[in-house]
Amino acid sequence: MSKMYTITSSQGWLTKAILYGLLVIMTVFYLLPLWGALTTSLKTDTEIDTTNPLTLPRDPTSKGYIDAYEYLRRSLLNSLIMTLCGTFGAVSLGAMCGYVLSKFRFKGDNLVFLLITAGIFLPYQAILIPLFQTIRTLGLYDSLLGLILTHAVYGIPIMTLMFRAFYGELPTSLVQQAMTDGSGPWRTYWKVVLPSTKIATVTAVIFQFTAIWNELLFGLVIGGPNSMPATVALNSLTGTLSAQWNVQMAGAMWVAAPVLFLYIVLGRYLVRGYMAGSVTAV
Amino acid sequence: MNRLMEPELTSSSASSGSWGWFTGIFRRHPFWVLIIPIGLVLYFVYGGLLWNVWVSISNWKGLAPSFGFEGFGQYSKMFGSYVFWIAVKNTLLLFLIIPFCLGLGAAIAVVLDQGLRGSSIFRSLFLLPFALSFVVTGTIWSWMYNPSNGILNALLHAMGLGALQGTWYTAQETVMWSIILAMIWQFSGYTALILLAGIKSIPEVQIRAAMLEGASKLRIYSRIVFPQLKGPVATAVVILMMYSLRSFDFIWVLTEGGPGFGSYTLSIYMYKQTFLATRFAYGAAVATVLLGIVLVIVVPYVYRTYRR
């Protein structure tokens, strides 16, 4: 990562100390709220009232986590099903678009690409009423299927952008070779394109997984008691137990857990995804 | 990009088993392979947008849908409502995160560009808030900002800065500033990532040449690096604007628009009018205004980007 011109070679200890000092200050800024949430989630009710929120719990308890889990259990399962299926849908459809739009030419292909990817900028409020109406007409209100369909559809634009960029990096001659050897476009995709873009696929899957898991608005509007995602449940937990901060913070940790897990284990893919999601103009 | 559908390939594909018909379509009319995603996008994005505009001029009043033409009454009612203008003001106020995120992001990007050991770990730490759900961060920040014994006030008290303790999101005068501070926290690491990617993509030769000529670090950044970051900066600005305009989740969790109308944004206003007050036509009109603002920002950007 480090480049030739960076100051590693010539910098004095003072410069280094100042730079690390800045990095530590920034770390405190970014992690302070999360640290406070973690310590509070492990404290008892009385300790929260009597101690500074940033101090370590004297007598750590898992009570907050147990209570929050009791409240969120069903919705965490809903979210998991919704997110896995929604991600599968969005990634499959987006990969299809990306493959065709990067490796095949047809009349109006650029227009199709523009139409699909312009959806990235869509403010969801501007389609919320028609969406609500459509989902209700289909009989999918308050169902996981309705949420899955919605998330899969609105994931298509960003997934198309990503996969077209990823597949665009793949040499066209590679695909052409496979096609000349007699395998069709479908076989070529499974035999050549997919195996040589595994990292790209992982990147897109993780990006879309976190996007769907984290989302609130759709769950609020077309979800209900039977299909409530974890974000909606956490929000209502905040409303019902406004004094019990340990339960609330533990709830936040439960909802953050899958994303935190992915962040720790596969963080570099997530970072790659965020970059790829913003490369439209770079 | 090469045209893959060469005529001699079409005949050899006839033997590819039960998928033959699909292969044939794929080769001759790749457009039709995408008919499902294209159809879904046309219906759910573009159809939805038009439908929403229609609802805003329809006579849909209560819960039961109604699509008769009514006129532009909702718009004149909306433009005459002072709550609507509060929502517009607050929505635009959120644009204030942009200069702060850019400044902080640029500073972080430059520090991370110095090749210090552990830079990538710090980069991940700074980006962590952006990876989390707004519902999670909203919940955490409601504890941060809690006026009685929340994290910030307790910290200020412990540091002997009790005078700086604030009302944060519980008072109309401070609520928007509290939201802006939290959004800077959540987005500045992401801004830094975009700018850092831009810095890393500048050809090394340019920088080494300048160093050979004895240019100082400051000069290299101000004369060579920053002028080449126009693209990444434009991207960051548009992304931050989109997040500001769409900001719903975080504000909903923290304040639900309150206290009073103190943190109403267009997104919050639209949601409350439509789904809580069941004034569908009115909510659709608010959404149409939001769409208008987004188009003003996005169309020039998309035009510039896709022309290439």
Fold and architecture overview:
With 282 residues, chain A is mainly alpha-helical. Helices cover 74% and strands 0% of the residues of chain A. Chain A has twelve helices and no strands. Chain A is globular, with a radius of gyration of 23 Å. Chain A starts with 12 loop residues before the first helix and ends in a 6-residue tail after the last helix. Chain B is mainly alpha-helical and 308 residues long. Chain B has helices at residues 7-12, 20-28, 30-33, 35-56, 73-79, 82-93, 97-112, 119-131, 134-144, 151-158, 175-200, 204-212, 217-225, 230-246, 249-254, 266-276, 280-306. In chain B, helix 4 crosses helix 17 (280-306) and helix 6 packs across helix 16 (266-276). Chain B is globular and about 75 Å long. At the A-B interface, helix 1, helix 3, helix 4, helix 5 and helix 6 of A face helix 2, helix 3, helix 4, helix 7 and helix 8 of B.
Number of domains of chain A: 2
Provide the succession of SSEs of chain A: HHHHHHHHHHHH
Strand content of chain B: under 5%
CATH hierarchy: architecture of the largest domain in chain A: Orthogonal Bundle
Average pLDDT taken over every residue of chain A: 88
Q: Largest sheet of chain B at a glance?
A: none
What are the secondary-structure elements of chain B, in order, as H or E?
A: HHHHHHHHHHHHHHHHH
Query: Tally the helices of chain A: what do you get?
Result: 12
Q: Sheet bearing the most strands of chain A, described?
A: none
Number of domains of chain B: 2
Low-confidence stretches of chain B: 1-16
- Backbone CA Rg of chain B: 26 Å
CATH structural class of the largest domain in chain A = Mainly Alpha
Shape, principal axes of CA atoms of chain A: globular
How many β-strand stretches of chain A? 0
> What is the CATH H-level superfamily of the largest domain in chain B?
MetI-like
| CATH topology descriptor of the largest domain in chain A | MetI-like fold
CATH class of the largest domain in chain B: Mainly Alpha
